[in-house]
């Protein structure tokens, strides 16, 4: 049944219903505003039946939405969601508001969503209840009082920003929920191509529509080539496909474009699926272009017989020059019989067939060079990773993609703008093949500074041993940047903030790492390390004769990080740089202990500090000291660690067209620093993120195995650290 009417009282719009509909792409008619404040929110269907009440409407949207598990994946989760819907009403109670915030904050300590592992109407109901209070919630967001709750609220706000911003802009004022806000069209301006409210630079772009898209009838595909790992550019394409599929309640297919067996492998397929799962991409099924090889060969032969394609034995370099100059091949006007004869030689993979390729007969004089008789098939007798040696010929991407898109029922093909000139070729091939036309929607390719995204270039680094593999932390692959310490939530937020814009942008990595820091800093545990080289021993003459241990939080503002033990001894290690900055009789603060006064500084013949002697002054105020020092006890329990810092692989922000990346290789992209870490570091797990006090954020790549083998920690950029390339 179609929803014909939505109505609600002017002073109490059902924010959770409106927000859920936007997020789940459930189309609601323009609401009818009634003056009777006691009138409940009401939906009237095309047959005259109606539903009333905020939570009734919310549950209805949860059931009809295409978003997975929006109303729970089973009866138990649905019941949990019902409990949260009932609880959400407490947020409108002034006296209980902060108590409710405290409870939800505690509940979310180790959770991403309120119920299960994906967004549900429970999340939207609580999110809407908070947003509806206007400035009251905004002031609490800034107070750092509810870190888990704010993290959760911000995550939803960013991921579903377009729909939620539209609802909040319309229905929420500074004092909270109220009558719809009218924005005068004259108060809108264009900022960098994006429409925003006047004076509010950086407001989110309005939703972009797919051409001729209908709710429930959109089918999209994400089609990576299995010749490498997924990189950040592919991630943008994958996430945009998912965004539109969810928005239009459509389907998403993952298709492997496996038309080039020389570069492809099952290993790449497995890792691409792993990366797709990492990004949280939900798809209907996995297909392969190779599933359609028989059909594609039949279609190619039909084109030859129809005079729309011909076999050409022109050498490749000469063919490229003739295409550029608009010169027809000597084979273009060969008879159908001659082309079919050579086509069969290609199929057999004979010596004669290896000299040939199949070309479409389009228009050699067209100003758009992609239409100048493109290659459809090449003879390449190399075993295929899925189907072995069955074929000696393989279709090109340009020929296979338009056909398979049409056959698989794709309604809209999302392509980056670098393919713009080949869009006409795409549709011409569909026309010649007699299949339906697929809509093309272009988006800008994601380009990052100091970064190569060409798989051919990335493969060079792998094959020449310049990196340790496709998951190297210097690589822009999903596995590489996650291994370096990037949270997937940060990557998703960064990409969705770019939206489906067609404007070409060169993005800074700093922005991505800044988003990442905001996610990891509130929750990651704190540890201590001292650089091993030239470390200095500080002897506290009045320090404890017998070492003692205290249990302290791993993160002072996040109990969920757990606890750690700290040993207090008479002799402690500090970094050389810290020791070198201390003056005699200076009072310093030893972090997590208290103040001390350095009485004597011992130096060697070269003037290097070798030892410090001081006294504890625990009654001293930490507010009066200039230096706040990290330290480690002199014990045998310290852990050997290796701190790894990484730089860009090239030294130029952006390569110009035709410029060789080999000319701008960065000679030094990795720095190793030996250090000692506190004893708790032996408990770190691989992949765990931590902060070394005063040294930055790190990800544990190799955990503790034995004392002689160091724990390896990868430095995580925080968006502020300069590199040598900069």
TrEMBL record:
One of its GO terms (molecular function) is glutamate-tRNA ligase activity. It holds the Pfam family tRNA-synt_1c. One of its GO terms (biological process) is reproductive structure development. Coiled coil: none annotated. It is found in: Cytoplasm. Keywords: Aminoacyl-tRNA synthetase, ATP-binding, Cytoplasm, Ligase, Nucleotide-binding, Protein biosynthesis. Residues 217-521 form the Glutamyl/glutaminyl-tRNA synthetase class Ib catalytic domain. Residues 628-701 form the tRNA synthetases class I (E and Q) anti-codon binding domain. Residues 524-612 form the Glutamyl/glutaminyl-tRNA synthetase class Ib anti-codon binding domain. HAMAP family: Glu_tRNA_synth_type2 (MF_02076). Belongs to the class-I aminoacyl-tRNA synthetase family. Glutamate--tRNA ligase type 2 subfamily. This is glutamate--tRNA ligase. The lineage of its organism: Eukaryota, Viridiplantae, Streptophyta, Embryophyta, Tracheophyta.
């Amino acid at each position: 049944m179609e929803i014909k009417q939505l109505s609600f009282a002017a002073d109490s719009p059902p924010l959770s219903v409106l927000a859920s509909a936007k997020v789940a792409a459930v189309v609601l008619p323009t609401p009818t505003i009634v003056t009777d404040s006691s009138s409940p929110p009401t939906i009237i269907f095309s047959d005259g039946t109606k539903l009333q009440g905020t939570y009734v409407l919310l549950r209805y949207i949860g059931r009809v939405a295409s978003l997975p598990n929006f109303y729970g994946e089973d009866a138990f989760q649905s019941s949990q969601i019902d409990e949260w819907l009932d609880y959400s009403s407490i947020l409108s109670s002034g006296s209980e508001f902060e108590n409710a915030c405290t409870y939800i904050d505690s509940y979310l300590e180790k959770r991403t969503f309120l119920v299960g592992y994906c967004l549900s109407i429970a999340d939207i109901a609580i999110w809407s209840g908070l947003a509806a209070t206007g400035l009251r919630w905004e002031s609490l967001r800034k107070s750092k009082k509810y870190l888990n709750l704010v993290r959760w609220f911000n995550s939803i706000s960013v991921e579903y920003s377009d729909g939620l911003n539209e609802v909040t802009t319309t229905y929420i004022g500074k004092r909270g929920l109220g009558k719809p806000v009218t924005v005068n069209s004259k108060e809108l301006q264009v900022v960098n191509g994006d429409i925003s409210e006047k004076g509010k630079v950086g407001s989110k772009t309005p939703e972009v529509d797919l051409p001729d898209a209908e709710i429930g009838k959109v089918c999209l595909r994400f089609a990576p080539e299995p010749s490498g790992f997924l990189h950040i550019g592919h991630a943008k394409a994958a996430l945009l496909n998912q965004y539109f599929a969810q928005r239009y309640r459509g389907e998403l297919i993952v298709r492997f474009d496996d038309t080039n067996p020389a570069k492809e492998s099952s290993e790449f397929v497995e890792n691409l699926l792993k990366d797709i799962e990492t990004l949280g991409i939900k798809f209907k099924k996995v297909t392969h272009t190779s599933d359609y090889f028989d059909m594609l060969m039949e279609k190619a032969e039909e084109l030859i017989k129809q005079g729309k394609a011909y076999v050409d034995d022109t050498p490749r370099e000469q063919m490229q020059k003739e295409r550029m100059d608009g010169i027809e091949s000597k084979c273009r006007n060969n008879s159908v019989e001659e082309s079919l004869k050579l086509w069969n030689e290609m199929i057999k993979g004979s010596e004669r067939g290896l000299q040939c390729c199949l070309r479409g007969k389009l228009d050699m004089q067209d100003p758009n060079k992609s239409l100048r008789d493109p290659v459809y098939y090449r003879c390449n007798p190399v075993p295929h990773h899925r189907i072995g040696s069955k074929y000696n010929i393989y279709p090109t991407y340009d020929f296979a993609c338009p056909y398979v898109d049409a056959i698989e029922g794709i309604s809209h093909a999302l392509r980056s703008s670098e393919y713009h000139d080949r869009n006409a070729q795409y549709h011409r091939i569909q026309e010649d093949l007699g299949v339906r036309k697929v809509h093309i929607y272009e988006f800008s390719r994601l380009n990052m500074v100091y970064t190569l995204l060409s798989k051919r270039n990335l493969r060079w680094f792998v094959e020449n041993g310049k990196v340790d593999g496709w998951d190297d932390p210097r690589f822009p692959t999903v596995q590489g940047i996650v291994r370096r310490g990037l949270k997937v939530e940060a990557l998703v937020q960064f990409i969705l903030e770019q939206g489906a814009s067609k404007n070409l942008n060169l993005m800074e990595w700093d922005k991505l790492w800044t988003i990442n820091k905001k996610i990891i800093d509130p929750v990651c545990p704190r540890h201590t390390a001292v650089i091993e080289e030239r470390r200095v021993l500080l002897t506290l003459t009045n320090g404890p004769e017998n070492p003692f241990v205290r249990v302290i939080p791993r993160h002072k503002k996040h109990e969920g990080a757990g606890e750690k033990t700290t040993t207090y001894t008479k002799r402690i290690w500090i970094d050389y740089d810290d020791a070198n900055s201390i003056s005699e009789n200076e009072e310093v603060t030893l972090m997590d202990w208290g103040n001390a006064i350095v009485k004597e500084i011992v130096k060697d013949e070269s003037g290097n500090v070798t030892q410090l002697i001081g006294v504890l002054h625990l009654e001293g105020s930490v507010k009066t000291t200039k230096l706040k020092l990290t330290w480690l006890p002199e014990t045998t329990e310290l852990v050997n660690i290796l701190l790894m810092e990484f730089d860009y692989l090239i030294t130029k922000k952006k390569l110009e067209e035709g410029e060789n990346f080999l000319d701008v290789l960065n000679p030094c992209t990795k720095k190793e620093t030996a250090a000692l870490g506190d004893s708790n570091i032996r408990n770190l797990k691989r992949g765990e993120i931590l902060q070394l006090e005063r040294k930055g954020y790190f990800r544990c790549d190799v955990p503790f195995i034995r004392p002689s083998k160091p724990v390896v920690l990868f430095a995580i950029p925080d968006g502020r650290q300069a590199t040598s390339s900069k």
